[in-house]
Design brief:
Helices cover 17% and strands 36% of the residues. It is of the alpha/beta class and 96 residues long.
Length: 96
């Protein structure tokens, strides 16, 4: 499980049946527990539903050759919850 700052969001995503695609240190030593889901995270809606600590920041990376991601990162614990960079046809959306 991710840290206490992201745990409620992670649990809600899992309860909605979103498919987890990766869990672990993702791409650098600054990553502890990063969890990737095959869905789009509507960050505005998620922030409206969950009271997130100030250390939780929005993150987006539109890579050209190293993948794309969008989600929430805990800057204190180095944990994150990531989803697809963009919403699209057939892509589940998590709103919280």
């Amino acid at each position: 499980m991710t840290c206490e700052h992201l745990r409620a969001v992670e649990q809600a995503i899992l309860e909605q049946g979103m498919h987890e695609t990766f869990r672990g240190p993702a791409w650098s030593q600054n990553c502890r527990e990063w969890v990737y889901f095959d869905c789009y995270l509507d960050l505005e809606a998620v922030r409206g539903r969950f009271k997130l600590a100030d250390c939780v920041r929005d993150h987006s990376h539109r890579g050209t050759h190293d993948g794309q991601e969008r989600g929430l990162v805990c800057q204190r614990c180095q944990d994150a919850i990531m989803g697809r960079y963009e919403a699209g046809a057939g892509v589940p959306v998590f709103r919280g």
